[in-house]
Design goal:
DNA polymerase, domain 1; globular; alpha/beta; 10 strands; binds S-adenosylmethionine; eight-stranded mixed β-sheet
Length: 399
């Protein structure tokens, strides 16, 4: 196995000629290129091998992930995921949320398959290097957004695939790294970006209007005190910029009361900002459409969600595409397009008590699965599945 850095090219910096491929950005794919050197180092390094700065950054990232207080991500509902994917030898599967590679590993171990792993987080991709090596050509790992998973598959020569799996949200590693700014439990910069570019949560908190903050926190965090939280943020930022997770958590805790045993008062506000900064719901809606385009007949789509906003999008999409949405008998007859999916899970699969006890992160997980049918994919606008909120770019453009 030879994982090597290409020192003259800051974009394609990890590649295995012989076995699997580990890739970060393709030429001409400007949005997904490797971030600048300092940014990659700050985030845990993206090159590996040798005694280079990259190698040291990589080692440091590994140590952070395995050191005290840092848990390796435990895959949720792995058994049902495998069962619903209905793996077959020779099949090509897309793991759209590679993370620590838990699902990819399970898929590769369970049958003679090939996996295309996708993650928008460059440290997840970099940390997958050893796994790519060990997989001996069966795993391709790409730094990309899962909204373009069909394009990724085609880029690697696959016009159709046998399965797509998505395990939404953040990984334990992302939550545990204070410098990523996802968690109010670890003080760090108010960042929250899964990918290497774009505005951070601090930018949103600094620029969004009070009304935008309130709408965002209400719709994406389902926080009943959203108006009070937005007011408190706007009042605080006139005194000093809100730059850290601890500063934001303090501001929220002053206006959202919690009783012993409740979740932390800042939980819902942090969730809202994270979803907004990463356009998580837009990504999900586009990924479902992309899966519809790339799955072959009998191919399986399996999605694990962690909150009601995500689950509602998956449920609505699958109900529409499988023709299981109830149609009022008072409406005029309209021709409904042929279903593109058959539902495999009328009710979502949830983890059992033993899994929740062993892995509390599994608590709110729901799995939905569907099988692709023969009908052509629908070229429909996915915006109808999303809450109405301003775009991130519009919010941060304001003075
Ligand atoms: C819950 S973790 C997945 C864990 C993985 N199933 C495992 O067993 O290790 C979610 C991962 O998806 C990635 N992710 C989230 N949104 C994404 C997107 N739109 N495109 C690509 N990756 C994304 C995150 O960076 C994170 O690494």
């Amino acid at each position: 196995m030879s994982i090597y850095a290409t020192p003259d090219d800051g974009r394609k910096w990890l590649k295995d000629k012989t076995y699997g491929r580990l890739e970060q950005g393709m030429p001409g794919n400007a949005g997904r290129r490797c971030a600048k050197l300092h940014d990659a180092k700050r985030r845990g390094g993206c090159r590996t091998g040798g005694d280079s700065g990259w190698g040291r950054a990589m080692m440091a990232a590994r140590q952070r992930l395995t050191g005290p207080g840092s848990a390796r991500h435990v895959p949720v509902l792995a058994g049902p995921v495998l069962e619903q994917l209905n793996l077959r030898d020779g099949g090509i599967y897309i793991d759209g949320t590679f993370g620590a590679g838990g699902y990819s590993r399970a898929i590769l171990n369970a049958a003679d398959t090939q996996v295309i792993g996708i993650d928008r987080d460059q440290s997840a991709v970099a940390l997958g290097a050893d796994f790519v090596a060990a997989a001996e050509g069966r795993l391709t790992l790409v730094e990309e957004r899962f909204s373009s998973l069909d394009q990724v598959a085609r880029r690697f020569g696959h016009e159709q695939v046998d399965g797509v799996v998505l395990d939404l949200g953040v990984s334990s590693m992302q939550l545990d790294q204070a410098e990523r700014g996802f968690s109010f439990r670890h003080d760090g910069p108010l960042d929250m970006r899964m990918g290497a570019d774009g505005p951070s949560a601090a930018d949103v908190v600094a620029r969004a209007s009070e009304r935008e903050l309130a709408d965002m926190i209400f719709q994406l965090g389902e926080e009943r005190r959203s108006r009070a939280v937005a007011r408190a943020i706007v009042a605080a930022r006139t005194d000093a910029p809100i730059r850290t997770t601890a500063a934001l958590a303090d501001i929220v805790a002053r206006v959202v009361r919690s009783r012993p045993g409740d979740i932390h008062p800042a939980t819902r506000t942090f969730q809202a900002l994270r979803i907004f900064v990463n356009d998580e719901l837009g990504e999900l809606a586009e990924a479902l459409a992309a899966a519809e385009r790339i799955l072959k007949p009998s191919g399986r789509l399996v999605v694990v969600t962690f909150h009601s906003l995500e689950d509602r999008i998956v449920k609505t999409f699958l109900a529409e595409r499988s023709g299981t949405v109830g149609v009022s008998r008072h409406l005029p007859d309209v021709e409904t397009p042929a279903p593109t999916f058959r539902l495999m899970t009328r009710r979502p699969i949830a983890p059992d008590d033993a899994e929740i006890a062993a892995n509390p992160r599994a608590r709110s997980a729901k799995l939905r699965a569907a099988e692709r049918l023969d009908a052509p994919s629908r070229d429909s606008d996915m915006a109808g599945l999303l809450p109405r909120l301003p775009l991130l770019a519009a919010v941060v453009r304001q003075p």
